[in-house]
Amino acid sequence: xxxxxxxxxxxxxxxxxxxxxxxxxxxxxxxxxxxxxxxxxxxxxxxxxxxxxxxxxxxxxxxxxxxxxxxxxxxxxxxxxxxxxxxxxxxxxxxxxxxxxxxxxxxxxx
Amino acid sequence: xxxxxxxxxxxxxxxxxxxxxxxxxxxxxxxxxxxxxxxxxxxxxxxxxxxxxxxxxxxxxxxxxxxxxxxxxxxxxxxxxxxxxxxxxxxxxxxxxxxxxxxxxxxxxxxxxxx
Lengths: 110, 115
Prior knowledge:
The structure holds 2 protein chains of 2 kinds. In chain A, about 0% of the residues lie in helices and about 55% in strands. Chain A is mainly beta. In chain A, the strands form 2 sheets. In chain A, strands 2, 4, 5, 6, 9, 10 and 11 form a 7-stranded mixed sheet that branches. Chain A has a 4-stranded antiparallel sheet with strand order 1-3-8-7, with no helix packed on it. In chain A, strand 5 and strand 6 form a beta hairpin. Chain A is globular, with a radius of gyration of 13 Å. Chain B starts with 8 loop residues before the first strand and ends with a strand. Chains A and B meet through strand 4, strand 5, strand 9 and strand 10 of A and strand 3 and strand 4 of B.
């Protein structure tokens, strides 16, 4: 039982490049979330999903897109990366209110 | 969700009880108090939650005042591995099939356990 895993762990992009972050959970959770955390700050919600095929915007959705084609996977896409998107990205999943977080992806946009 | 106020940082000696306060004076009757922690560079970890009654699990105890306007997280025998940022979050519990937006994290309390 791996819990919540994130791929990749680290990535460096140039401005304008695109990439997809993958989150996978093996706990059969309905709900999944993407957060970002900037230095010295708490986590902020980007997008979330309440089930397969559904997504919704969080607090800071601009510049990101998401997809939930399979229940166990939640993808976060950056179509045209900007330096302001340099951050640590955390994925989480939950069945009810207790969320389980992945180890994070550290993204640097130059 | 109700807003919470926590001290920016706290120190505690190893082996002693760490008591982390949280004020949530605008909490509503159906809002729970949740505690998460984040050890450096890792994803947040759930600790405990409660509505009215005091709660205890293998990690910690949660004491909620009778008026529910504040709470205290207690780590009974703090170790160096408990050094982390602790987040107090207040939110409505939801039942399966209902809305499920994310958690609202503030800046939390940086707890430093001293050897």
